């Protein structure tokens, strides 16, 4: 049973914030996207994020880029994770993302590289262009990217970027020791019957609005192209993967499909329930909403600790000398 705090947050999303109003309507989605295009959100990290945390601006070409560290400015080349924020591909990084990044940096000993990537409908915001940018960052940075973590839209980019690194830059892919997917978008077609069924009761997300993303993000790609739907990409060569999703999130259906794929059952079957093997950990949390690991309730705090343990398990023995 969900904690009282989690229940209260779900009621807030449903009846006060009314998040579903935006995602549940094509018109509302376009209006919200236009509003944020005309009045862009602030992406800067909060001041005094956490004691002992240092944030440096290390811009990459035209993208703002941040390095978050717990060791001040003296260590420039230690291994790092890349954090790719969510926001339906058109909303900026927010304080909850920054708080999680700070916690991960503090508790893992890794730096975090946080790209402020182009958002729809801006130029350069198609999935193919953004993924190319993430791969370029992995190649240009002096410090190796040893893990990639992303939530929601960022979860899609995390898995798709890893798949494309394996295809195009295997030498960079070998550096990545694990990836974490938090409530990821895995199939941008959003047309699986179980997604449709769950979409009717999701307190946050809605199908009619989110389906407007495919033509903008894909720019002519098929809905099954792994660039925008990494569920259909290669999983055999991936590093260890952790996936977390809640049962009140319509996207859990596609998470179940990815779990089924790791179990050798194909992509059409939804296999509910948590699952673990040597390469894949799926945590399916009952009664939790979209991106629950980032939310301020006991289940979110427990999920964050689980993610950090996973990152430490797979990166704790790594040093910069391993990449020279």
UniProtKB/TrEMBL annotation:
Q: Which UniProt keywords apply?
A: Hydrolase, Signal
What name does this protein carry?
Answer: Alpha/beta hydrolase fold-3 domain-containing protein
Q: Which PANTHER family match?
A: AB HYDROLASE SUPERFAMILY PROTEIN C4A8.06C, PUTATIVE (AFU_ORTHOLOGUE AFUA_3G11560)-RELATED
Q: Which residues form the Alpha/beta hydrolase fold-3 domain?
A: 81-268
Query: Which is one GO molecular function term here?
Result: hydrolase activity
Which Gene3D superfamilies does this entry report, sorted A to Z? alpha/beta hydrolase
Where is the organism placed in the taxonomic lineage, from the top? Eukaryota, Fungi, Dikarya, Ascomycota, Pezizomycotina
A Pfam family annotated for this chain is: Abhydrolase_3
GO terms for biological process? antibiotic biosynthetic process; monocarboxylic acid biosynthetic process
Instruction: List, alphabetically, the InterPro entries matched.
Output: AB_hydrolase_3 (IPR013094), AB_hydrolase_fold (IPR029058), GDXG_lipolytic_enzyme (IPR050300)
According to the UniProt entry, where is the signal peptide? 1-18
Q: Which organism is it from?
A: Penicillium nalgiovense
Transport as a keyword of this entry, yes or no, is no
């Amino acid at each position: 049973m969900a904690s009282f705090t989690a229940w209260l947050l779900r009621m807030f999303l449903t009846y006060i914030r009314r998040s579903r109003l935006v995602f549940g309507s094509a018109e509302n989605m376009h209006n919200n996207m236009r509003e944020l295009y005309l009045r862009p959100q602030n992406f800067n990290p909060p001041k005094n994020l956490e004691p002992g945390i240092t944030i440096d601006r290390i811009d990459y070409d035209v993208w703002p880029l941040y390095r978050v560290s717990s060791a001040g400015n003296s260590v420039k080349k230690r291994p790092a994770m890349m954090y790719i924020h969510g926001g339906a591909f058109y909303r900026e990084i927010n304080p909850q993302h920054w708080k999680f990044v700070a916690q991960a940096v503090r508790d893992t000993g890794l730096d975090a590289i946080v790209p402020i990537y182009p958002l729809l409908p801006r130029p350069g915001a198609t999935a193919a262009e953004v993924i190319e940018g993430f791969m370029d960052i992995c190649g240009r940075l002096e410090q190796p990217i040893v893990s990639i973590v992303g939530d929601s839209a960022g979860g899609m980019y995390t898995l798709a970027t890893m798949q494309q690194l394996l295809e195009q830059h295997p030498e960079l892919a070998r550096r990545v020791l694990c990836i974490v997917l938090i409530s990821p978008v895995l199939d941008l077609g959003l047309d699986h019957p179980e997604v449709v069924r769950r979409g009717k009761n999701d307190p946050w997300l809605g199908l009619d609005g989110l389906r407007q993303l495919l033509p903008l993000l894909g720019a002519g790609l098929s809905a099954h192209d792994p660039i925008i739907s990494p569920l259909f990409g290669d999983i055999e060569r991936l590093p260890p993967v952790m996936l977390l999703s809640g049962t009140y999130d319509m996207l859990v259906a596609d998470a179940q499909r990815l779990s089924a794929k790791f179990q050798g059952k194909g992509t059409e079957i939804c296999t509910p329930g948590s699952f673990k093997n040597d390469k894949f950990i799926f945590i399916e949390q009952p009664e939790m909403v979209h991106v629950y690991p980032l939310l301020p309730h006991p289940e979110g705090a427990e999920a964050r600790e689980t993610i950090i343990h996973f990152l430490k398990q797979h990166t704790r023995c790594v040093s910069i000398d391993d990449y020279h």
